[in-house]
Amino acid sequence: MAFFLARRLVQAVLILLGVAAITFLLLYFLPADPAVLIAGRSATPQMVAAIRHELGLDQPLVMQFLRYVGNLLHGDLGRSYTQKTEVLPLILARLPATLVLMAAGIVVEVALGLTFGIIAAVRRGGFIDRSVMMLSFVGVSSPQFVVALLLLYVFAATLGWFPMSGFGTARHVVLPALTLGVLGAGWYARMVRSAMIEVLRQDYVRTAHAKGLSGRRVVLGHALPNALLPIIAMVGIDIGQFMSGVVVVEAVYGWPGIGQLAWQAIQQVDVPIIMGVTLVSALAIVLGNLLADFVAPFVDPRIRSQ
Amino acid sequence: MNKFAKQISLAALLAASALVPARLAFADTPTNGGDIIVTYKDDIATLDPAIGYDWQNWSMINALFSRLVDYKPGTTELGPSLADSYDVSDDGKVYTFKLHPGVKFTNGRAVTAADVKWSIERAVNPKTQGPGAGFFHSIVGADKMTAGTADTMEGITAIDDHTVKFTLSQPDATFLNVLALNFASVVPKEAVEAAGGDFGKHPVGSGAFTLKEWTIGQRLVFVKNPDYFIKDRPHVDSFTIEVGQEPLVALLRLQKGEVDIAGDGIPPAKYLEMKKSPEFEGMIVDRQQLETSYVTLNTQVKPFDNAKVRQAVNMAINKDRIVRIINGRATPASQVLPPLMPGYDQNYKGYAYDPEKAKALLAEAGLKDGFSTQIYTSNTDPQPRITQAIQQDLAAIGVKAEIKAVANPNVIAAGGTQGQAPMVWSGGLGWIADFPDPSDFYGPILGCGSAVAGGWNWSWYCNKDIDARAQAADAMPVPAKAEERNKAWAQIFTDIQTNDAPWIPVFNERRVVAKSKRMGGPDEIYIDPTRVIDYEAIYVNK
C-alpha cells in the first residue's frame, strides 16, 4: 500500500514536469512575440529587442526552460508580462474561489446523480426510470453556456432568488454550482443506475430481502456501498473535467477564479500566467486522482486486502 | 525664449470646462456626491501609468494621476493641468513648464520638477518594459535611454522645484499631446520603489482619485482625492469597478439599477433591440471615436506591389453592406483619418464602390482573370463575418482570398512579418488614436520607420517623399501654424490614398456604452475622445 502510494507520487511529479515541458514548448513555438505585444505600437525594433532581453526571451530555448524549472523548484512561477506582477499571488488569490466552486459542483452532481440513479434503478423500466434517463440525457448534452444563461435568467434576473453575479455568500454559489454539476449529474445518474442494477441482481441482495430487511435498508445499506466504487474513481477524474468547465461558468457568473485568469492570459499571450494556471490545474488533476486512489481502499475492503 | 507661446491660466480652463455641460439643454450643473458601480468582463491588468495601455485601464490611470497638460473634458483641446503655463522657444525645440504650486501626491509629499523628470525617464527606460517609450523619441537622450546605455535623459532638466525644461532633438508639433498621455503621468519615486516592482497594484499619484481597495478578480474601489488641486472636481465620491462581469449579465444588472455603467457596452446581437426599446431610452451612449478599421494591402507582396491592383480592390468593397453586418454601429470610411481627427478631409470621397471599374483596373494591371491571395483576421466575432463579406466582394472581381482567422496576437505577428500577410483586416485590433493628432495615424502605421519586423505598418508601405512631407508637417510650430499643419496632413493622407492606396479604409466604428438613468452629464464625457470614460467629469443626478 505504501509502495503503491509512493509510486503514484513519483508519477505525479513526472507528469507535472512533462506538462511544464509540453506547455513551454507549445508557447515557445506560438507565432506571437510577447515582446512586440508589450512594446506597443510606438516602439522601434531596438525597443522590442531591449524588452525581449529584459524578459530573457533572447536566450536559447533550453536555457529558458531550465531557468523556468529552476525557479519553479523555489516556488517562483515568474512575473506576468502584461500585469508586471508575480504570478503566484495572482493564482493564489483566485484559487480558493475555484476550489469552492468545484467542491460545490461535485456535491451537486453526486447528490443529484446518486438520488436519481438509485430511484431509476429501483424503478427500472418504469415511467420514473425513463423520465430520469431522458432528463440525464438532456443534462449531459446541454452546453454549459446555455445552462448558465438559462438559470441566470430564470432564477436571478426574473425571480430574483439569487444574485446575478459575484462571490462571497452561500447564495452566490448556488447557480454556478448547479450549472457545473448538472452536466456531471447526468453521467452519474446513468452510472449509478447501471451499477445498482448490476448489484441488485446479486445473490446477497436476494438474501437480504429474504431475511426480511426493509427495501430501503437493502438498497442503501447493502447494494449502494458496492455500487459506489466507480463513482469515487469518477470524482477524481471529474476534478480535471471541472478545470475546463469552470472557465465558462466563471465567465458567465463573474466568479473570481483561475478560469477567468487563464482565459484572459491566453488572449494576451501572457506566457507566465498560462504556464502557472496550467501547472496548478495539472496539479489539481493529479491530486484528485491520487485522492481517489487513496480513498478507494477505505470504501472497498477488497482493494485494501490486495 | 519668446512669449508667442500661450500663457494659459487655470481659471480659463475651469471656465471653459464648465461650459461643456451647459451647451446641452437638458443638462444642469453637476451635482457632487454619489458612489457608482462600473462593470467590465476582463480584469484590470495594471494601474501603472508607464505600463497600462488598454482601453479599460486607460481611463482609471487617467483619473489616478496628473500630467503637465491635459485635455478639457469631452474635447480634443489641450489645456493646463499640473503645469500652470509653458513657453516654447523660437525654434520649437525647448519647452519650459511652470508647475502649479502646492500640488501634493496622495502620500502627502509635494510634487516637484524632479518628479516630472524621473517619471518620464522611467516610462522610457526599457527596464520598465512599458509600451509608451516610443512617444518620447524627440527628447534629447531618449535614444540612449531606450538603447539601455543611459539611466537619465539630458533633454529633461529640473531647473528648480517648480520649473522643468524639455529640450528636443527636432521640433515636434505633437509634443504637448505626448505630455498629456498617461505615460507622462507624474509618480512619486519613493512609492514606486516601495512597491518593489508592483506599483501597478499599489499606485500613488496626484490625480482626482486614489485607489482604496483592489480585490483581485473582483473589484477595485477608487475614492475621491480630497486634496485634488483642481477645484470642484471630481464630482462623484467614489467609483467601484466590478470585474469578471459577462456583458449580457452587466446589462441585466443595469436594467435592475445595480450597475451604473456597463463598461463593455452592448454585445452586437443586442444592439438594435436595445437601441429601439423605450426602456433603454437615455441609457445608451453611442458616439464616434478616433478609430478607423481597414484592410492593409501588403505593398511588398505580389500582386499588391502594383498600385493599380490596390486601387482595384479598394473599389471592390461594398462598405455599406459591411456596416449593416455590425448593425450600423459604424460609418463607411473614405480615408485613413477618422472624421473627428484634425486634418480629416470632408470633400475627399476616396474610392467609390464600383466592381466593374475594379475589374477593368485589374485587367489593366494584367490580371484579367483575377488572382489568389490570403486575408488575415482576428477570430473573435464579428471579425470573421466581416472578413467573409470582404471575401465575397473580392470574389465578385475574380480575386480568391483565403481567410486566415487566428487569435489577435497571431494576427499582429503575421502583419509584422515581412512578406507574410498579403491582406490583414484590422477589426478588433483597429487603430484607435493615442492622441488627437493626424501624425499618430502616419508614423506608427504608414511611415517608413514602422515598416519593420514587429512593426505595425502591415502594408509595409514606405514612400520617401511622403515621409519627408510628414517630417516637415511635424516640424511646424503649434499652435502658431496649427491650421497650416492640419492642411498639410490632410493633403498627405489623401495623396497616400489616391496614389498609393496601401489600405482599404472600411469604416469608422462608434463606441457604445450603457449607463443608468441617474448618471448625468453630456455623452462626450462617457466616450471621451482621449480618456474613454472621464471619471473626473461624470456625476450623479440628484
UniProtKB/TrEMBL annotation, chain A:
One GO CC term on file: plasma membrane
Domain ABC transmembrane type-1, residue spans: 95-296
Keywords: Cell membrane, Membrane, Transmembrane, Transmembrane helix, Transport
Source species, domain of life: Bacteria
Listed transmembrane segments: 12-30, 99-122, 134-161, 173-192, 227-253, 273-296
PROSITE patterns: ABC_TM1
Main location: membrane
Keyword Membrane on entry: yes
Pfam families given in the database record: BPD_transp_1, BPD_transp_1_N
Molecular function via GO: dipeptide transmembrane transporter activity
Membrane topology listed for this record: Multi-pass membrane protein
CDD domains the record matches: TM_PBP2
Cellular localisation: Cell membrane
Matches recorded under InterPro entries: BPD_transp_1_N, MetI-like, MetI-like_sf
Protein family: Belongs to the binding-protein-dependent transport system permease family.
Protein name, UniProt field: Glutathione ABC transporter permease GsiC
TrEMBL record, chain B:
Gene3D superfamilies: Dipeptide-binding Protein, Domain 3, Periplasmic binding protein-like II
Pfam families cross-referenced by the UniProt entry: SBP_bac_5
Signal peptide per UniProt: 1-27
Cellular-component GO terms for this entry: ATP-binding cassette (ABC) transporter complex; outer membrane-bounded periplasmic space
GO molecular function: peptide transmembrane transporter activity
Alphabetical UniProt keywords: Signal, Transport
Family membership noted in the UniProt record: Belongs to the bacterial solute-binding protein 5 family.
Annotated protein name in UniProt: ABC transporter substrate-binding protein
All residue ranges annotated as the Solute-binding protein family domain in the record: 78-449
Species of provenance: Mesorhizobium atlanticum
Gene Ontology biological-process annotations: peptide transport
Sections of the chain in a coiled coil: none
Subcellular location per the Swiss-Prot or TrEMBL entry: Periplasm
